């Protein structure tokens, strides 16, 4: 079928709007007409060569839309169903079969290689040029997307698509880090480094979990203000002094949990100094330099019983967690609408620029 997409052709250059041709859906696949799609840092990292996705490519991995056709064997959804599209997983590896699909043994292949098991891809230009598709099992920077039965989640029709779309990656990652990965206990203290959309989703998740002390550290005043509005009990400016000292002025024993969304080694190192005994640190942010390391005093860390863990997609099982977040939003307990700014799909480059300038937290592209 004919469709329209934003194509990444060269690193560090604007997306180009082009007509495309989609084949499928084949067995196990789902054709979705996209209503809205979030822009995530991962999309830009893939465009700019930091991830192993070959260009030219159609990116986008936070899609929401309506199923228009299904391939053979698909029973989970039917044409007319509204779905959020999330990360893909194989369903058969040890991680998938034990409830940890975000650690799928085929994650890198399914997210970045852009081909089916037989080596084919579903997207070409109208002139026949092959484009890398199936990014995170969807490539939803387009009017239509080929996804898989496994990575679509049926969602209600009474919530705006622009709010459902970011649940596919960024929002479920931040909230899931608190509600799933660390499973923060009621009455505990948590420190969130970075108040972008992922960090603020973590703040909202901490409120849901009943954390008593929720500290957000963020250099930009408007984001600190929003963190307080969303439920943070304290906000810190990293320029105001050493982070560990600022945290211990609030809670002398240190925090039980910390989450880093920055990927900056110096920030992660500062979190270690802010922890209490048996504290747990979750790492979400991806360093700009893939060779980045952090110094760690092994004796002190061992004596305190610290745990440092990497977090992918908030340890989410999307079919369970995305509906939970939607219910929380509808009940007023997870105000994700405060994070989203919409742009027309054709203004994708304007949205990227606005995000880069820090003017918006979570840009979401919407189709007419």
TrEMBL record:
Domain Enoyl reductase (ER): start-end pairs: 12-365
Question: What is the superkingdom listed in this entry's lineage?
Answer: Bacteria
- A GO MF label: zinc ion binding
| UniProt entry tagged with the keyword Oxidoreductase | yes
Q: Which PROSITE patterns match?
A: ADH_ZINC (PS00059)
Keywords of the record, alphabetical order, are: Metal-binding, Oxidoreductase, Zinc
Cofactor(s) demanded: Zn(2+)
Instruction: State the family it belongs to.
Output: Belongs to the zinc-containing alcohol dehydrogenase family.
Question: What protein does this entry describe?
Answer: Aryl-alcohol dehydrogenase AdhA
Task: State the organism of origin.
Answer: Rhodococcus wratislaviensis NBRC 100605
Biological classification of the source:
Bacteria, Bacillati, Actinomycetota, Actinomycetes, Mycobacteriales
């Amino acid at each position: 079928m004919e469709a329209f997409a934003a194509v990444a052709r060269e690193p560090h250059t604007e997306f180009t709007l082009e007509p495309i041709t989609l084949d499928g859906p084949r067995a196990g696949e789902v054709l979705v007409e996209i209503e809205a799609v979030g822009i995530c840092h991962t999309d830009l990292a893939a465009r700019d060569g930091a991830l192993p996705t070959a260009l030219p490519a159609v990116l986008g991995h936070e899609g929401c839309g309506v199923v228009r056709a299904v391939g053979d064997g698909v029973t989970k959804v039917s044409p007319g169903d509204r779905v959020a599209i999330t990360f893909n997983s194989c369903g058969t590896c040890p991680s998938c079969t034990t409830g940890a699909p975000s650690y799928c043994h085929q994650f890198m292949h399914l997210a970045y290689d852009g081909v089916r098991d037989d080596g084919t891809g579903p997207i070409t230009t109208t002139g026949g040029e092959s484009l890398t598709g199936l990014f995170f099992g969807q490539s939803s920077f387009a009017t239509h997307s080929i996804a898989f039965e496994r990575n679509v989640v049926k969602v209600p029709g009474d919530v705006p698509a622009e709010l459902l779309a970011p649940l596919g990656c960024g929002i479920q990652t931040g909230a899931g880090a608190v509600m799933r990965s660390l499973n923060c206990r009621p009455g505990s203290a948590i420190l969130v480094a970075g108040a972008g959309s992922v960090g603020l989703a973590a703040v909202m998740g901490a409120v849901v979990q009943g954390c008593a002390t929720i500290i957000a550290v963020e250099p930009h005043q408007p984001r600190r203000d929003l963190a307080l509005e969303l439920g943070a009990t304290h906000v810190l400016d990293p320029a105001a002094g050493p982070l560990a000292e600022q945290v211990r002025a609030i809670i002398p024993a240190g925090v039980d949990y910390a989450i880093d969304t920055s990927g900056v080694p110096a920030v992660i190192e500062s979190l270690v100094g802010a922890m209490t005994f048996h504290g747990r640190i979750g790492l979400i942010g991806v360093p700009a330099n893939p060779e980045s390391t952090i110094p760690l005093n092994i004796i002190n860390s061992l004596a305190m019983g610290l745990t440092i863990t990497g977090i992918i997609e908030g340890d989410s099982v999307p079919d369970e967690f995305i509906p939970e977040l939607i219910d929380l939003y509808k009940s007023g307990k997870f105000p994700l609408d405060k994070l989203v700014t919409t742009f027309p799909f054709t203004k994708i480059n304007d949205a990227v620029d606005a995000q880069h300038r820090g003017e918006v937290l979570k840009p979401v592209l919407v189709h007419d």
